Amino acid sequence: MKLSVNIALVLLALLSCGSRAPKGHAAETVAVASSPQSAEGSVSWDRTVFDFGDVSVADGPLSCSFTLTNTGTEPIAIFEVVSSCGCTDVSWTRSPILPGKTGTVTATYKNEDGAMPFDKSLTVYISGLKRPVVLRLRGVVHEKKKSLSQRFGAGKLGDFGIKERVLRMPPMDCGTLHTESVGVANLGQRPISVSFADVPDGLSLRLEPNPLPPGKEGSLSYTLSAAEGLYGSQSFPFTLLVNGKGYEGLSVESFYRPSFPPMSEKERREAPLPMFNNSTVSLGKVSSGQVLEAVFPCRNQGRQAYRLFKADCESPALRPSPMADVPGSGKGEFRVTLDTQGLPKGENVLRISLIGNAPLRPVINLFVVVEIA
Questions:
Q1: Which domains, and CATH codes, for the chain?
Q2: Which end of the chain is more exposed for a tag (fewer CB within 10 A), N or C?
Q3: What is the value of pTM for the model shown?
Q4: From the DSSP assignment, how many helices (H) and strands (E) are in the chain?
């Protein structure tokens, strides 16, 4: 009996500590989402990566903010934000975030490590979400600040300076919207007016400021709306018009994943759950020009049939075969043909991303390994 009382007291103390308000603040009475189903997919971010670009040691500490919006129907709270190192200080909205309202995570990179690139992560734990959200801040620190031509000249289009012509998005769930931005500059002696042509559906672009004054930096924002039913690697080419002159060869790229509605525990248990015997098939050492086949057996541990939406192959040398639906508790297999003609000598590791209707495993990465003699 005495042992039971002691355990109860310890549990009570732990619960009291967990619910105590910070010193100087009244205790919150707003209930926040506590189950994964209540808030899963109910948070959107204005960005998940902040790129400071090229900075100098003399610039001192560098700060940025990430804004999240509660798109669900219940209040949520940011429980904790963990920085990947002591070189980055972080603060965040401590009060519950009501539906439709926003909160912020603010980070300051101390910039005390000298001239070098940096890429730091912030792991954000939010009530009701199964997995934490990872935010990143990055940049390149130089001893002395580089000129605009040094920083943006390598990929310039006329007087329009841009570092990369392929603008990348993080993986996106179908039905969501995401915005990123990249620094640009006017390397000329007169203002630049920018417009866009041949822009695919689902992509929008904006330059700020526009016109861009001579010798000044700006920001090119690009937003993707991930269409339902469009899966895997996506590329959206567009034409950039600088003072009326067109430049091609630019694109925005991302990877689209299927989205799933909130599910009960029962629905999760019954949902498809494909488990492959091996994630890698080695085809050994072969001569260039041979056509080989890799087979990946699997078992569906769920009760509902598993359906493959798309096999996204990173190499055109891979040709996937249609995969039959795998019944609940049944067995199946995925087959892919590899044409080794044109592959470089030595070891080649080629990835296939299987995108299907399994909520717990929407994307499964398989690998084919072959050595070309």
A1: 29-144 (2.60.40.10), 147-262 (2.60.40.10), 265-372 (2.60.40.10)
A2: N
A3: 0.70
A4: 4, 25
Q: How far apart are the two ends of the chain, measured CA to CA in Å?
A: 73
Dist CA 246 CA 251 (whole Å): 14
Burial pattern 83-121, b for ≥16 Cβ within 10 A else e, equals beeeebebebbeebbeeeeebebbbbbebeeeeeebebb
> Would the pLDDT of 365 be above 90?
yes
Distance of alpha carbon 109 from alpha carbon 137, whole angstroms = 8
Task: Characterize the bridge pairing of strands 318-320 and 346-356.
Answer: unpaired
CA dihedral 231, 233, 239, 240 (to 10 degrees): 110
211 cis-preceded (ω within 30 degrees of 0): yes
Start-end of H helices in the chain = 2-19, 36-39, 148-152, 265-270
Can you name the residues that pair with 310 across neighbouring β-strands?
A: 355
The pair phi, psi for residue 340, each rounded to 5°, is -80, -5
Q: 282-308 pLDDT, tens per residue?
A: 999 999 999 999 999 999 999 999 999
Residue with tokens 């919207």: 177
| 268: three-class secondary structure by DSSP | helix
The model's pLDDT over 320-363, given as tens digits with 9 standing for 90+, comes to: 999 999 999 999 999 999 999 999 999 999 999 999 999 999 99
Q: By C-alpha distance, which of 50, 23, 124 is closest to 80?
A: 124
